[in-house]
Amino acid sequence: MRIVSSRRLTAAIGAALGAGALVTAFPFLWMISGSVKPRSESAAYPPRLLPEAPTFENFAQLFGRLDFGRYLVNTLVVVLISMAGVVLMAMAGYGFAKFRFRGRGPMFFLVLATMMVPVQVTMIPTYLLLNGMRLTNTLVGVAIPGLVSGFGVFLFRQFMSAVPTEMIEAARLDGAGEARIFWRIVLPLSRPILAVQIVLTFIGAWNSFLWPLIVADDDRLYTLSVGVSLLNRQIATSPSLQMAGATLMVVPILIVFIVFQRHIVQGFTLSGLR
Amino acid sequence: MKQPLAPYAFIAPAMILLLVFGVLPILVALPVSLTDMNLAGLADWSRIEFAGVANFRELVADDAFWQALTNTGIFALLGVPTVIAVSFAAALLLHRSENRFFRALRAFYFAPAITAIVAVSLVWGYLLNTRFGLVNHLLSTVGLPPARWLGDPVLVKFSVALVAVWRGTGLNIIIFLAALKTIPREYLEAAELDGASGARKIVSIVIPLLRFAFLFVAVTTVIAWLQFFDEPFVLTKGGPLGESTSISLFLYQEGFSAGRFGYAAAGTLVLFLIIAGVTLVQLRGRRFDADR
Question: Which residues cross the membrane (chain A) (predicted)?
Answer without folding.
Answer: 71-96, 108-130, 136-156, 193-214, 241-260
